[in-house]
Amino acid sequence: MITSNTSDNPLSGSDCCSWDGVVCNSKGDVIELDLSGSSLTGVINSSSTLFKLVHLQMLNLSMNNFSESQIPSEIACLKQLRSLNLSNSGFNGQIPNKISHLRQLTSLDLSWNHLKLQSIGFESLSMNMTKLEILRLSGVDLSSSVSRFFANFSSLSYVELIDCQLQDEFTSEIFHLPKLKYLNMGNNSNLTGSLPEFFNTTLLKDLDLSSTGFTGTIPESISNLKNLEVLNLQGCYFSGRIPGSLSNLTQLTFLVLSSNSFTGLVPSLASLLKLTILDLGINHLEIRRNFDWINKLTKLNFLNLNYMNIHGQFLLCLANLTKLSTVTLLGNFISGHIPSSFMNLTQLTKVTLEGNQLQGQISSSFSNFKSLQLLNLVDNKLSGTVSIDSFLGLNNLETLLLDDNSLQFETTTNYTNGTLPKLKIISLASCNVKEFPVFLRYQKNMIAIDLDENEIEGLVPN
């Protein structure tokens, strides 16, 4: 497709302007070329006709397979380029320094190849590409120290540097780039740094530092990020209290602070009415009994409060969260019965209540959860007789974990083939099972069965 041609007008003789992926100006010059996902293979030669398209302003070769070849340095001939996308295209090796000659670029995407960019090359980018607004280098090896050059990119609004092997301390100046709206540096475990004070309101909407080595506290001044919609600090080394000023970020839809070392009581977040994801688990936090505010977050579809020292009948506070899809409350002290109001959360797909102090019987109303994929009630104080009949109709259920309660699992049932068509994992350890459960004979997708610590008699069916 991209071949050699010595013509001054490589696409002459054809009305190429009518081709899919080609846009021309009024003079017939090709100014946009989109060959993304076109199953291109092989190598782009230095003599390719591509480099004769000197009026080209947009080039998209993403989602192809260029056979682990290098990005040809001749791409620097396309000096009118505003947008260059070579992502997911099987390029390999060093990014040519000459790419920095594309001074008109406003968008550069080289992500998810097997590329490397040395610090000297990154410095050239920062010095020459002063108009750059979008920079996506996820998966590119940036292990050379590059962070000090970011202050030069004064026009940047979108930065994505996921899994780039970034190292050393990252400059805090990047947080103060005047036009920055999106910053994602996730999955760079050797990248260190801390959040600066945010003295002025910024345009920042999306901040993701997950799985990095960032430390320190969340400053009270984070409330100045009035436009923030996404805050993801999962898997870092942050500590201290969650500031009450976080409740001023009323545009937040995604708040993930799990797997850090935050301490103290969680402040009320009742004003964050747009939240769809709230994940605070695995810290040293407490909610205790001041958790009524959670019931006001009616747009939540994901809630993770693992190991939060939650006491009392917390499940009652979820009654209004009818959009919940995933709730995980592992390792708390939640007590009482599973309330009938919880059974009204019919959008649930994953329920993890393991390691609490829930009492009473397992309600047959669990059959209301038609989308349920995972039910984990391990290690509670549930009692009474439970039968597989209680879960009939859960055609999406893949994992059922009921072990370490005081249950009596009833194995005799008339239901056979198709009882739970997607069931893969079941644990009935310590459930007073007396004989091999008949229904298991008819499950076709099982990969794990745990019947430990029971009193099963008779033969195990083949």
TrEMBL record:
Membrane topology category: Single-pass type I membrane protein
Keyword Membrane: yes
GO biological process: defense response; response to other organism
Subcellular location: Cell membrane
GO cellular component terms listed in the entry, alphabetical order: plasma membrane
Family in the record: Belongs to the RLP family.
Protein name, UniProt field: Leucine-rich repeat-containing N-terminal plant-type domain-containing protein
